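User: Second chain of the day. Same drill as before.
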Amino acid sequence: MLALALHDRAFAFLSRLDRLEPIARREAFINEVLETGGVYAAPPDDTGSGRFVFEVVLHDIRATGATEDDAVSAWIDAAQAEHEASTARPIA
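Assistant: Same format as last time:
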């Protein structure tokens, strides 16, 4: 039951994102992570390669990207795919 509640919250959050400007969307992600115990992080570049990966983990959905915006966009894509998959599965 808890997993269902978390996914309901994830999909409610996902549906609100369409109406937000990019800056407001970023703030919404940070707030949602703080409220739910997710991850919103850009690791420091300690490899010397000049590259890093930004990571977002929210509602058990993980996404990464070369930039913050890429990671947020990847999370949205993954959450939409999860939502579509969950609505296509019969409830046992």
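The beta strands are 39-41, 54-58, 61-65.

User: Great, on to the next one.
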